[in-house]
């Protein structure tokens, strides 16, 4: 029986990924594969693979030979950067790990060999995800420009700056972990905050 991982991701902390998990559990049952891990992320898909703990965990399991299949609901769950997604696909393919995409019912490996149709689809879908994100970004920037033209102030008032002491007090738990010698990555995970926030705290200490 093949060993599989369920991989799910949402972009925002308030979003829920449980529906993805339930759907993929049903897929695993229908394919008669054994789920050995369920990896979940609440992070932007535009982040680099090296900055995503879920992706790193997935790659570690693959490199150890602990899994033969990854189940995802759609390509964008792996990421929204075409280059980063294709890097994941390529490494898993070389390791003999197949990626099953539920919404299209395709796999990257067929009888242990590359599925050219799936490879093409991944490239195409990852690029669509990137374009979708770029379009959204352009709309946001356009809306901000229009608001400025109408005299609306965007962001903090001119001259306003969060006081260092206030910021450190706000993230006191983060400061404690850093002073104790924990790494930025471990502190971010332990305190459930963004890595950039931890880096900012570290710079102020």
Structure description:
There is one protein chain. The protein has 205 residues and is an alpha/beta fold. The protein has two domains: 3-127, Resolvase, N-terminal catalytic domain (Rossmann fold, 3-Layer(aba) Sandwich), CATH 3.40.50.1390; 164-204. It contains eight helices and seven strands. The chain has helices at 18-31, 53-63, 82-94, 116-149, 164-170, 172-179, 184-191, 195-204; strands at 3-10, 34-42, 69-72, 98-101, 106-107, 109-110, 113-114. The protein has a five-stranded mixed sheet with strand order 2-1-3-4-5, with helices on both faces. Strands 6-7 form a two-stranded antiparallel ribbon. Belongs to the site-specific recombinase resolvase family. InterPro entries: Resolv_N, Resolvase-like_N_sf, SSR_resolvase. Residues 3-151 form the Resolvase/invertase-type recombinase catalytic domain. One of its GO terms (molecular function) is DNA binding. Pfam families: Resolvase.
